[in-house]
Hints:
Layout: H1 11-22, H2 26-38, E1 41-42, H3 43-49, H4 54-66, E2 70-75, E3 78-83, H5 85-104
Amino acid sequence: xxxxxxxxxxxxxxxxxxxxxxxxxxxxxxxxxxxxxxxxxxxxxxxxxxxxxxxxxxxxxxxxxxxxxxxxxxxxxxxxxxxxxxxxxxxxxxxxxxxxxxxxxxxx
Length: 108
């Protein structure tokens, strides 16, 4: 069986692509911003904050969780979500390197 296109890139490049793809929807950005503001949250609270249906928010939460940007724990019938600091540290390092390199360039 042939290699997938992602096999041609480093683990780091694939990880950054997965994370940034998950952040590629404004609802997901809004969810991250909300979780940062409240520091922890139950799904129902997010529904009250965003103009989206509960199933839509659940799908966005699933995408963010699959990308490793949030983590959740089950508390009774609800899931309590919070930011997963590890992958944000990866983003911080990645974008800091880009900003530093761009700032130092003497091109065009």
